[in-house]
Structures are given as C-alpha cells and as structure tokens.
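Human: I hope this is not a bother. Would you mind checking the protein record under this note? Thank you for your patience.
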Amino acid sequence: MKKEDINIAVDGNRIEISAEVKNEKEIKNGEKLLRSERYYGKVYRAVALDQDIDGTTTQAKYADGILDLRLPKKSSAAAGRISIR
C-alpha cells in the first residue's frame, strides 16, 4: 500500500482511517499474454477515543507498512468557579 492511498480524518474524539488498494500484474511472453492478475480492495476503520483530539498538532508517518499516528489530546478549558446568582 502506498501512503498516497491512505486517508485519515479527525473529528472531535473520532478518528477515521481508510485506504484503497489497487494491484495489477501482467506476465507476457513476447506479445502473448500468459497471466493477468488484478486486486482491488478497500479498508476502513473508525475509532472513538475518550478525549477530543487536537487536529492542529496531529502527525502521521507511514514507513515499511506501519502507520504511526501522533494524536495529542485537546487541552481542556481552564477550570473555574461559577458564581450562583
């Protein structure tokens, strides 16, 4: 799979990873076609995490068939007191 074929989307605490694979292979003997193989497939995975993800600082790396995602938590608003009226 090529890294161009992988799509990653982040929405709040949900991350979606999808990819499409296309392989075509032909073996010829001169002008004569001996064998033709085609494989097409799609994969999709969605995961909901406990906390929201900071979409501005996420990082993704793909090397040797391994997808490495760095998904930092979104910093929550500072805790404060609420006055009662």
The mean pLDDT is 84.
